[in-house]
Amino acid sequence: MSVLALSVILAFVTPQAGSTPAPTAQSRQAGDAREMTLTLPHALRKGETAWLLVTVGMIGHNQIQLTTQSGKDLGNISPFGIRSGQAAGTYTIPVPAEALSGRRLVLRLSVPQAGGLHRATTTEEVTSVRLVIQRFGNGN
Amino acid sequence: MSIYFETTRRDFLKTSLATAGTAALSRHLALAQAPAKYRRYSVTSQQGQKALVSYAKAIQAMLNLPADHPQNWFRNAFVHLMDCPHGNWWFYVWHRGYLGYFEQTIRTMSGDPNFAMPYWDWSDLAQIPDSMFNDVLTPVASAYERYTKDLQTFTAFIQPSLKNYWGKLSPAQIQQLNIRGYKTFDDMWNDVSGWTPTPMTGHLSHPGHFNPENTAFAPTPIARYLTLQNPQLSDSVKKNVSKGTVYSGLEPTNFATTYYQHIPIANPIKIGFNSSTTASHNTAPSKGTVFSTLEGLPHNSTHNYIGGGAGEGSPIPNGPWGNMTNNLSPVDPIFFLHHSNMDRLWDVWTRKQQALNLPYLPNSQQLPSYEKEPFLFYVDGNGKQVGPSIAKEYISMSRFGYDYEPGYGEEIIGKRNLVLAAKHPTASVEGLMKGNAATLTLSAAAIKTHLDSDTATSLFALVTVPRPTENSPNREFDVLVGAPADATNITADSPYYAGKVAFFCGMMHMSGMTDEATFIVPLPKRKEAFANLSAAAGNVAVTIRAVPSGGGASVLRAVTVQSL
């Protein structure tokens, strides 16, 4: 009835109100993206997978592109069904094991622009990023 | 870092056989079920292409129906606009009902009693199928122009009948619309026209403004942005629909996602197959919503890219957008092939859970709330309002008597994990040891299969290394494949790096414990690790070493490579 073991908070871009602040990820603008380093508490073990939880603010029809520092594409957040003026929610992005360097993930967040250009996300657009470990067990 | 775990060869074999037997039994039981009356085929198959002929015939008939007919093409899309759930745990079950009744309507309208909605498996075909640009199968076809040439034309055609329909809604339906934020007809219509009854900043004298973000209506010329000449999804959307991402989305074993976002605990989330739980299927997604991987990535981005959502390769970064970007998306016929695939993936996930003897519904505390959720807006194949129905009625595909031709994702069924659920493990290849390094002769075909798959890892090494001792206290070892003998400082991003194996119990020795242990490590999915592969006719010599993570010579005791 319960998941065997779960996950660990790794980093916030900004700590959530009412919670104990977690270690703040080092986030900086790096060219056309916002870059941060997230660290797992331990290397992935058998049956474990790494996931990003990306909480997105009001971005309308914009998208958030997620890549590693080396340019490996991790996914693309494209809100659908969100009414104007509403935050876009949290997205669960699987992180392939090969995207990690040891326990670390260097994540780049950008907003695709016309003409194939990108710009760095703002802290209003991506309000929180967590890297967690999941171990899928017996369900529910 | 690769997945790895400690085991012994004896334990591995015992567990493998037991699990494979259970999985085989589950598959056998599944096969024993009665065949469905209807089968939904891949749109790329001959049967799928044949179904599109009936589909087009029915669409034309629905376009020709008057606006006050519940099966009018656009009226059918308004069922979605008025009641569809997104970003919550009723996403799949509501769309199963919507698609099931729609399929009945297509049978009626086409005169094809065997019609079943084809699915578009974007993991195998990352472009709109060519046939979906034919005639009325695209919403930019001239047949749509008389209704959707512009907003004024569309309003004149559909609004009177919709107002009449609204006036006859039951109190229970009105309650659902209120939850959705539609207190009045105008509230709903504003989401069609984009009219926002609040002034823009600096224009207080104006009563409101048009907001393209809230405009569900799309005029015919821009109803779909992808064309027969440019049908491809973008690279970023291709990543979202890739086999790797879809496979990950099928892996969770919980039904719904639970996120303790504001509670300072170390375990903030249980990722589920479905998005997060809400009190109503009409709760609009917002700050507290957690999208499941399959809804949040392949579902959302495919919708938006077809409709011209902003981003890479998009012609319209700031709108106006096409049909697929919003809740009138069923105006584009590709909607139903897209959702047929989402529904298929729910079926795959359900059968995966069953094969593993795991729950495929919410837990007993949550199930009553899930099952009794009212779905009140469906229209059946005879054009009649279905009336009050609840989510429970649409959990099983037997409600509509269909099943699916297998598509991508079936691979996960019966796999508890990549190793233990091997259906047909092939003969293993043992390494020839020389100076704590092993040389193995592997089939070039097996290596190519391993490298070509962007999801499954098919080659694993069973690596035996010594336990730490007082004289040799190393507890972590990096497994290297094909690395030059003189290579140093091999890091996890090296193409030769297979993974790290580690002892967690230090030098403690329990009764019966041997002085070595065997770990299972996936081989790298980088061609550099397999030198001369391209020139190899049949077999390739591969070297494997296990070096202490802090540096030093290989300590490998033995290695066997297993192909799954």
What is the CATH topology descriptor of chain A? Jelly Rolls
Give the percentage of residues in beta strands of chain B: 15-25%
Regarding quaternary structure, how should these chains be classified? heterodimer
**Main beta-sheet strand count, sense and barrel state of chain B:** 5 strands, antiparallel
Task: State mean pLDDT of chain B (0 to 100 scale).
Answer: 83
The CATH architecture category of the largest domain in chain B equals Orthogonal Bundle
The succession of helices and strands of chain A, N to C, reads EEEEEEEEE
Number of domains of chain B: 2
Structural class of chain A: mainly beta
Q: For the report, how would you describe the main beta sheet of chain A?
A: 6 strands, antiparallel
Report the count of strand segments of chain A: 9
InterPro entries (chain B): Di-copper_centre_dom_sf (IPR008922), TAT_signal (IPR006311), TAT_signal_bac_arc (IPR019546), Tyrosinase/Hemocyanin (IPR050316), Tyrosinase_Cu-bd (IPR002227)
Domain Tyrosinase copper-binding (chain B): 332-343
Keywords (chain B): Copper, Metal-binding, Oxidoreductase
EC number (chain B): 1.14.18.1
Structure in words:
The complex is a heterodimer of chains A (140) and B (564). Chain A is built from no helices and nine strands. With 140 residues, chain A is mostly beta strands. Chain A is globular, with a radius of gyration of 15 Å. Chain B contains 14 helices and 20 strands. In chain B, the strands form six sheets. In chain B, strands 1-18-15-20-12 form a five-stranded antiparallel β-sheet. With 564 residues, chain B is of the alpha+beta class. The chains are: A mainly beta (140), B alpha+beta (564). Chains A and B meet through strand 3, strand 5, strand 6 and strand 9 of A and helix 9, helix 10, strand 5, strand 6 and strand 8 of B. Strand 6 of chain A pairs parallel with strand 8 of chain B.
